[in-house]
Design brief:
Layout lengths: L5 H13 L2 H8 L3 H15 L4 E4 L2 E4 L1 H25 L8 E7 L1 H18 L3 E7 L5 H7 L4 E4 L9 E8 L1 E6 L12 H6 L2 E4 L7 H8 L6 E5 L5 H6 L5 E4 H8 L4 E4 L8 E7 L7 H14 L21 H9 L1
Helix pairs in contact: 1-2, 1-3, 1-4, 2-3
Length: 327
């Protein structure tokens, strides 16, 4: 390895993680021919093709997969040593980041993110794009996104998944729903009522899956495209919608809706942040990932919780107080 240029290791790791000569060149601020020339040197040095071109970009060979972890680890150690000299100072440096969020993320997570950024990083700004779970990882690898937040578990050797928090699902109804009046709803009530669901590219498939598991899809009166329109719809109708609990708590603070417990347990979903591997991030992207993990991974304090489980005719239900203590 005495004649091996460490810059080639960085090219290799980026090619492995992005699957793209173009994205690698943009990240390194060099031309595509320069990256192609480096790839040729890597192939000759290791006597291996390393990457094969497919319809989804460059696919690593078995030899490349064996090399990736050792080279990525070595680069991470080197980067860690020099990181202080390259640190991004959010208090004084400008930065613009592109994020992909579902409409739920825009309605509930983005306000928290921006409020914290205004305090900690006043010169930082964001561009937010709609989340398309089928293309988000590809956009991240191409450099079109700096990070995205999603609930589906997306597995790729080119991205890292950072868990933020877990969510369970509850039912949301109008505050003055004529029949659902208590703190929970029975399966018989769910079967008797009509439902509003959401179908789209943001990845929240649990509500429809739950209804399907109980043979209730025929009770769906409207299948919309965005979760954020549900409280507006429920305020004016007697429909029921299944929503993530934290999202529902946010909606109850600004709409005439309330939450009730389901008659069965739903599998908790994990909301996670997706980004490039640390060795492939710029100093500002490293700050962004740490910042988003800290801000969005925090649980809401009890004082911030809306009193959604308060009986119109009585005091808060004990389950509501228990949930507040957990938060």
């Amino acid at each position: 390895m005495g004649s091996f240029d460490l810059n080639l290791a960085r090219v290799f790791v980026l090619l492995y993680e992005t699957g793209s000569v173009t994205a690698t060149a943009e990240t390194l601020h060099v031309t595509q021919p320069t990256v192609s020339y480096s790839l040729g040197k890597l192939r000759r040095h290791f006597d291996d093709e390393l990457f094969r071109r497919t319809g989804r970009g460059l696919t690593p060979t078995a030899g490349a997969r064996r090399l990736y972890e050792p080279l990525r680890g070595a680069l991470a150690e080197i980067d860690g040593t020099v990181r202080q000299a390259e640190a991004f100072d959010p208090g004084t440096m400008p930065g613009r980041f592109t994020l992909a969020l579902s409409d739920l993320g825009e309605a509930t997570l983005l306000p928290r993110l921006l409020a914290a950024a205004r305090e900690r990083a006043p010169r930082v700004s964001f561009t937010v794009r709609p989340l398309d779970v089928d293309d988000a990882e590809h956009q991240l690898r191409r450099g079109d996104l700096d990070a995205f937040v999603a609930t589906p578990v997306l597995t790729s050797h080119r991205t890292v998944r950072i868990p933020l928090f877990h969510e369970r699902y509850v039912a949301m109804v109008a505050a003055d729903h004529p029949r659902v009046r208590g703190f929970s709803v029975t399966l018989e009530q769910l079967a008797a009522e009509h439902h509003a669901t959401v179908f789209g590219p943001s990845g929240h498939v649990v509500p429809r899956a739950v209804l399907a598991a109980h043979d209730l899809l025929d009770r769906v009166a409207v299948d919309a495209t965005r979760f954020s329109m549900l409280p507006y719809l429920l305020e004016q109708t007697d429909l029921i919608a299944l929503v993530p609990e934290y999202v529902g708590e946010v909606f109850t603070g600004s709409h005439r809706v309330r939450l009730v417990q389901l008659p069965f347990e739903t599998e908790p979903v994990e909301v996670a942040l997706y980004a490039r591997h640390e060795a492939s991030r710029s100093p500002s992207q490293r700050w962004l990932v740490q910042f988003m993990t800290e801000v969005l991974g925090e649980r809401v304090s009890p004082a911030q919780l809306p009193p959604y489980a308060v009986d119109p005719d009585g005091p808060a239900h004990p389950a509501a107080r228990a949930r507040a203590r957990r938060h």
